Known about the structure:
Blueprint: E1 2-11, E2 14-24, E3 29-33, H1 40-47, E4 55-60, E5 63-64, H2 70-75, E6 77-81, H3 92-96, H4 98-102, H5 107-120, H6 125-128, H7 138-150, E7 156-160, H8 168-185, E8 188-193, H9 196-202, E9 205-210, E10 213-218, H10 220-225, H11 230-236, H12 241-248, E11 265-266, H13 272-282, E12 286-290, E13 296-301, H14 302-306
Parallel strand pairs: 3-8, 3-9, 6-7, 7-8, 11-12
Antiparallel strand pairs: 1-2, 1-4, 4-5, 9-10, 12-13
Amino acid sequence: MIRFEHIGKSYAGVRVVDDLNLHIARGELLVLIGASGSGKSTLLKMINRLEPHDAGRILFDGQEIYAFKPRDLRLRMGYAIQSVGLFPHWTVARNIATVPHLLGWPAAKIAARVDELLTLFDLDPAQYRPRFPHELSGGQQQRVGVARALAADPDVLLMDEPFGALDPVTRAALQQELKRIHELSGKTIVLVTHDIDEALLLATRIVLIDQGKVVQVATPLELLTHPATAQVADFVGRSDMGIKWLSLQNAAGLARAQPAVPGLTLGPQASLREAVSAMVLNHVACVNVTDAAGGHVGVLHAADVFAPEAACTL
């Protein structure tokens, strides 16, 4: 879908991206992560030509990006940023409709798309369509910002620290929302963050960048279990890698097929990290796990998380 070939970029003679090669596959949610000044946001902005590169080439759908007019390229790419950037004097509906209007969509098609996206983001169209940005919470504004980026059904969604300014509860909710939308739409998403936990939660693959170079490209699980260097291990968090690993594993995967036990019950999306936390807080060694319909799947034993085949003692 997107290919970087020997990309270089300098500011005032200082190399900020250096001979970088990377392929982003169609339909993946790729997260660019690294310390401040590593070059990750610059790399993202190169994709839609907000930043020019001065060496190498970038291919989009098999064509060099300079073969496109900037407007045509950007209309095929949604762009969502931390500051949201909603037009304050426009309603929610008009903000979301920005790109479809530019593309000349019929009014009925635009209205239907606005309602579709508001519904997708759990914002009642009748209630939120006529509102203005100042009438929304920060989380609602961010939802509208992402909806606007998706309005014209772009080939790619580019996101630069989209949830960085939000409180932890709202941020967690929107992370789950983005994960759900990616699973539903199959959209190619490239997201920049400095938060390793956010990267591990959302990414199909993570690209760790340092001083304009790719240090490692890996799935979240590969990054935790096989860090390429000591630097990667330190960035991921060497001291709590095991806890992060638990957050990537589904509790149902280790549940024993046995009748329910008295006590706690967790839903089908619960991770091993959530299960262990629940057991510790409630001083128990087993929890029940259900499926999406609420049916009993089995019992997760604490001993199985740390020592498979060990007995459970209540």
